[in-house]
Amino acid sequence: MKSEQVEQPKQTILIVDDEAVNIKILHESLQKDYQVIFSTRGKQAIELAKSKKPDLIILDIIMPEMDGYAVCKALKQDPETHDILVIFITVKDHSDDETKGFELGAVDYITKPINPSVVKARVQTHLSLMMARRELEIKNRELIEAASLREDIDAISRHDLKAPLNGIINLPQLIAEEGPLNDEQKEFLNIIETSGYQMLNIVNMSLNLCKMERGNYSFSPQDVNLIQVIKKIRSELKDVLDIKSLSISIFIDGRKPYAFERFIVHGEGFLLYSMMANLIKNALEASPENEIVAIHLNHRASDIIRIHNAGVVPKNIRNDFFEKYSTYGKESGMGLGTYSARLIAHIHQGTIELNTDKMNGTDVIVQLPKNKSSFANSSPVRVLIVEDSATERLFIENILQKCQDIDVIGSASNGKEAIDKAKQLKPDLITMDIILPDMNGIEITNIIMKTNPIPIVFVSAFTDEESTRMAFDAMKFGGILDIIAKPCKSEDWNKGSWGNDLIVKILSLSHVQVKQY
User: Fold this and answer.
1) Residue 425: HSE in the Cβ half-sphere, 13 Å Cα cutoff
2) Which of 25, 221, 324, 517 is the most exposed place for a label (fewest CB within 10 A)?
3) Domains of the chain, with CATH numbers?
4) What DSSP character marks residue 438?
5) pLDDT in tens, 453-508
């Protein structure tokens, strides 16, 4: 038994013309394939369009009371009839008339005397295009809904993974407390706990990426010590370093960091850790053996992170380096590392770029903005200079006074004077020489910090490891401390980089501290 085919309803065409002969010709041409209705007046045509919802209107331009242009304009302004196709039909054949019709929203323009074959062909073409467009819109909506559903399912799956991870992370601690355990058992429990935390980080980062892609990630920045982040990553990647005999070196403003030195950036610790881990791991994988992966950190107008390795990114992926699923020559990995790094940089209102060639190797450069809210509507940083050399004191003062965000409120040439003025003037920040006539800068700092914590920048020619360690030991009394080396030769004083570094150091420390105290 043959199944009966359901006959599709005919599409509806509205003919609008004040001449009966034209309506007759059009009706005879189209009635076989379409349901045809007609009107001889513009206002009546508009009402029919609203009530009957035709698929296409054949509209005469020259009509009494209301011409075709006015009818078309009214139809296109009404949401109920806006999407109905309109074909103008008229004795006019000037290009200006056609232009006006298309501007009003018509899809075609045919002239009298009416040629039935031409009319049928034009009508069929435009109705077919309309049906194809509608089907495409339906497919697009279905794809969008499917993608949204898939993302929701992924998000739920990731969320549900956290529940069993609680057991994996917490149970090893309970087992260890029950004891006693031998060394091998302790190592196994430590591996389980570490693996649990790594899995938790992956789940959290995956959820965060979904939110970033959707544009609904809630960004909560704070001050992060990037040196500490890098050292943690270096420790975690020890096996990769050993296999290829690689090393990771950190540089701040072109030099190796002092002991206990920090590089503070404004952002989310977990996101910055994830970004740096992906970029450093990529650099290690791309680097030739027995090489150094160098991480250059610079405080400038923005905080700059440059990760360098001696390898070269293949030409065929350079343009897509930060795109999703971009990868090359890896047996594992989905190509999400650099993509997520780009998302994280953008979430921080920063930028990320790639420079690579055979001669210079590869640099991935991240620029992160400073904490602008700390600077907004704030008064200049009030600085006290502690320096026993009148020449160097004048030099530092001249450097700082060039910055409108800094106000030098006084100076001291010895320890007693420095302590008195710190108590009296209550500066936002102090530049402190380490070697002074009556006591050293460390002793002065300890006294000041006990009663009135003030951020201090040590400005000294003595930047050996022991002096640096002593300076950073003073941090136990509170406040934010840092150190910058004096230019040792007078001919260096005119160079702009030293003065700029000192200004940036003062601004980056003081505004954080002003908010706290």
Assistant:
1) 22
2) 517
3) 12-114 (3.40.50.2300), 137-214 (1.10.287), 222-370 (3.30.565.10), 373-516 (3.40.50.2300)
4) S
5) 788 888 876 555 555 566 556 555 455 566 676 654 444 444 445 666 677 767 76
